[in-house]
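Researcher: Go.
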Amino acid sequence: MKHEQGARPDDADPAAQSRGRESFSNPDTDTDTDTDGEATPLAQAEATLTLLSAWISNLQALARLEFSRTLAAGKRILALQLLLLPLAITFVLSACAGIGLLAYYYSQSVYIGFAVFVLTQALLLAAMLLYMRKLQALLGFDHTRQQAREALNDVRALFKSPD
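Model: Structure:
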């Protein structure tokens, strides 16, 4: 059969048009489940990838927050250490000397005054070290590692579960 000028080849054979329409699936009847109502492996993989991408973005946000917290704590520790060097020397010596002088005044013993002087120095330095240890506990990515372990365990459980 000859085609007319300007006519499309599909217009010439209506059977070809109906075959083309029937080859596509109907979106109303196309589902991702088997006849049993169970999800197909493709649907399960798509759902897993969707959850994985959401989890990765949440993990990335958590890592960013912990990284900024770690940087802030590190800056504070460094600032404290730089400030503590000159301040610790002058403050500790003057406070301890004053307390040692009071101990000497009330006890009238040089040995007791010196012992109180040394003891107060030790107590102040111990308090500073405890505070620095508290700040160092803020360093790291504990929550990110915990979330990553939980996610890996969930993925392992998903693949190990019997279908």
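Model: The radius of gyration is 38 Å.
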